[in-house]
């Protein structure tokens, strides 16, 4: 094994499922210092493993599971892994995170990452242990939902294995299929389809290797202090209401995307809000593995045995965005996505887009009207099976709009193919910039620029170049948090985020690292992502928003009149590029005409 | 002596949970007076989102749902609608 810093094993396992072989590949410590782990390390490995533009669903396309130096430490929220690959939805870099025991057990196999290439002849389960890999027949599991698959796997192979699993959507190459474990999902960008394209139903990991930390006593003390702070006011919202607590706030501010972003407020928002749901339903709370926050709020679903975890993004995308205000339909839709392995945001965005197309007479799909919950539920099942119109919906809103044409591209709700999350960009214009420049498309987890909009420093409806630095700061923070990896809900407990995260990394690895160095690390990771995208065909024209947001104002609610003229967004993007040290079009030095990473 | 304008305060999110109420009406010339009046009627909010006439870190006021402020000296006009909410919009 490579002699490397504590917190790491200094190698990744490269697995070719076409041949059933694997090989340990060393990772130089200099690379770990530069890219840390998780998303940063995953991007670096992807760069090493990719030669020129690649079809994300081809056998040679790599799919990675990346751990981090903090995984397995006593630091709260650190049990996370990143799944990194080229996205079949965006054709750009995609990094998707999930929290679970899969991270801890996976790392304890003795690797910092798994890289999977190749394609099986028939459905298989990839088992990874300290001793090596094996492929097991998955014919019995193929077609099963995610919860059923996990149950069958536990019965067949025992509970000492942890599994990452795809549902029918991943098997059928739905471009926004998820990879899931124990109710948590690497949700965005369709990496479940990449696993499905390799004919892998699941990955099982079993490991007991000891994890070393450079300064264990100090690390335990810091972990206790962090856990204590995580019980404080900064995470109160997540503990008491969960992320779904955003719904009424966003509705009141006119920033709640409704009916495919045609409005910023929804008349049934109160019916769907957790404040209302808790009056009539007994909810349960859960935490991710190794987490002290406990933001998961589970609600019972009518006529269903199991409850569903409710998040703001599920609620917005399957409720207001589709005009659906009947709570049991929204809860069931969310549960269906979890069972079938579908990203809720992209599913809701694509179905809402189809509903608007049908209402405008651009699609002849009976039942596709805003507010039709039965249509929503049926559509989700058809998407996962790629049956009837579900086959078109499974392509996502960008490809569907190209198929429909007739001007529908103007209101297909995506950036770079990734459907927008629940933040109305005309009324939250720092976030609009974050969406436009995001390397994985419109995303609230890779840019937290909404933090600037929700402050007294900015006019959220008239953002200027003065706000660009604040947007960049949140993108840098996210890049680092996703590489370490920690939960972003801890943000509020830090007084000096970069310095405190540097202390964690120093205690784990023994490195001499400070906040300033980590800030540079974050910027290096962002630039590497950009360079990967350039090599895969990125052009400056992609860093924009759909025409709807740039040519019409919101008409109702507290944000009535909010508009984002195209020239303003272009000025913001240009200022962003220059502030990053790139040229005005967004190319880092020497990246023009780059055809390989 | 000028009478203080009457404004509405709407509680959102975690503030509503703590207040146990959706909204209230208060007479106040500026936000400092308003927060004191709110704390008097809802003492459970003092130390949570209010601190002796100011907003605690992590909380914001929105004037009529359009403009955020934390400035306690900001003057109020009759009929204004003040939203009191957590600044954390992570979802």
Explain this structure to me?
The complex is a heterodimer of chains A (597) and B (91). Chain A is α+β, with helices and mostly antiparallel strands and 597 residues long. Chain A folds into three domains: 11-206, Aldehyde ferredoxin oxidoreductase, N-terminal domain (Aldehyde Ferredoxin Oxidoreductase,  A, domain 1, 4-Layer Sandwich); 221-419, Aldehyde Ferredoxin Oxidoreductase Protein, subunit A, domain 2 (Orthogonal Bundle); 429-544 and 565-579, Aldehyde Ferredoxin Oxidoreductase Protein, subunit A, domain 3. Chain A has a six-stranded mixed β-sheet with strand order 2-1-6-3-4-5. In chain A, a hairpin with a 2-residue loop joins strand 10 (179-181) and strand 11 (184-186). In chain A, helix 1 (29-35) crosses helix 2 (38-49), helix 2 runs parallel beside helix 22 (515-535) and helix 18 crosses helix 20. Chain A is globular, with a radius of gyration of 22 Å. Residues 593-597 of chain A have low confidence and may be disordered. Chain B has 91 residues and is an alpha+beta fold. Chain B has a single domain (6-86), classed as Roll (Ubiquitin-like (UB roll)), CATH 3.10.20.30. Chain B has helices spanning 14-19, 31-41, and strands spanning 6-11, 23-27, 50-51, 54-55, 59-63, 67-69, 81-86. The radius of gyration of chain B is 12 Å and the shape is globular. Chain B starts with 5 loop residues before the first strand and ends in a 5-residue tail after the last strand. The model of chain B has no long low-confidence stretch (mean pLDDT 95). The chains are: A alpha+beta (597), B alpha+beta (91). At the A-B interface, helix 8, helix 9 and helix 19 of A face helix 1, strand 6 and strand 7 of B.
